[in-house]
Design goal:
Layout: H1 27-57, H2 63-87, H3 92-104, H4 106-124, H5 126-129, H6 132-159, H7 165-198, H8 213-239, H9 254-274, H10 277-280
Helix pairs in contact: 1-2, 1-9, 2-3, 2-4, 3-6, 4-7, 4-8, 6-7, 7-8, 8-9
Length: 311
């Protein structure tokens, strides 16, 4: 967002008089909502870890269940910090931690969706999907995503520890660039999904896991829609001008914050849980070339060491 000129005394410096996403947490409005979100994310964490452990005992390891567990746990911590923030409104370090976790946790979802849409694209168009140049590009995209996360966190924290307005302005522009890249990274999932839908399946196309390819595409279409809306919303936030706290924009309000930032995530978490994405999107271990996905069909052949195709 833009510069925040009104600063309290003492480092770290808490911006005052400007609108922030979700507003200043209050006991009356935020604690009940955060408590509900904690319960929902806790159930999601328990569900994903339970499924992972049950599958692991059968020799069926689906690491993305652990990733979704990690997402849920990070959101539990985020909402706990927001509750603490309501009781300690002047504790800047708690505010920083809450904002950093709010921005960081969603990247897990971005990565999971890219992996899932890439699996579908590779199954529909094996030669294109397993192209070595595409694989190298995706690996580079992962590295840049991690770099963007480090940059975003570092410069978010920096803005709370300096009064140098030029440095703060530079930090905001660096954050904007990093979050814009995160949105572009997320659009990659949408691109693979669209290509999977509009390109006819190749003669050597495959299926994998359980369920039809149409079911997989439908589930991913819902998840990708919510995730891209979420990433676009986050990008719009950082690129928008700062508004006064007395006149916040709609995107700074609590309903927008809780419904879009957390609500959309929860939809995806439970969509994956209820559709058993751990079975539907499973692929044989070590898949690295056309034909590997169909070497073992879940539920029809004994399962060896599963999971993790090479990107």
């Amino acid at each position: 967002m833009a510069e925040m000129p009104n600063i309290n005394s003492g480092s770290p410096y808490l911006p005052v008089g400007v609108a922030i996403i979700g507003g200043q947490p209050t006991v009356r409005h935020d604690i009940p909502v955060c408590a509900v979100l904690i319960a929902l994310y806790l159930a999601g964490a328990v569900g994903n870890m339970t499924i992972f452990q049950l599958n692991r005992r059968k020799g069926h390891k689906f690491i993305m269940s652990v990733a979704m567990f990690g997402l849920c746990m990070s959101r539990i911590i985020t909402n706990v910090l927001r509750i603490v923030w309501t009781t300690q409104p002047n504790n800047v370090r708690i505010a920083i931690a809450a904002q950093v976790l709010t921005n960081a946790g969603v990247l897990i979802l971005y990565i999971v969706l890219l992996l899932l849409t890439l699996r579908v694209f590779r199954a529909r168009r094996p030669k294109m999907g397993w192209n070595k140049h595409l694989n190298r590009t995706i690996k580079a995209a992962y590295f840049l995503l991690f770099f963007a996360l480090v940059v975003t966190v570092s410069f978010t924290v920096l803005t709370f520890y300096t009064l140098n307005m030029k440095l703060r302005t530079d930090a905001v522009w660096i954050q904007r660039s990093a979050i814009l890249y995160m949105m572009i990274f997320n659009i990659t999932s949408l691109t693979f999904l669209i290509l999977s839908l509009i390109l006819p399946p190749a003669l050597d196309s495959e299926n994998f896991g359980t369920g039809s390819m149409g079911s997989k595409l439908t589930i991913l279409a819902v998840a990708v829609f919510f995730c891209n809306f979420l990433s676009g919303f986050r990008t719009g936030l950082i690129w928008s001008a700062t508004r006064p706290a007395s006149d916040p924009a709609w995107y700074d309000t609590k309903p927008a914050f809780y419904v879009i930032i957390f609500g959309f995530e929860i939809v995806i978490v439970y969509l994956f849980l209820f559709t058993r994405f751990d079975r539907m999107f499973w692929v044989p271990n070590g898949s690295s070339k056309p034909g590997d996905y169909s070497s073992i069909v879940l539920g029809e052949t004994s399962i060896k060491e599963p999971e993790q195709e090479k990107s």
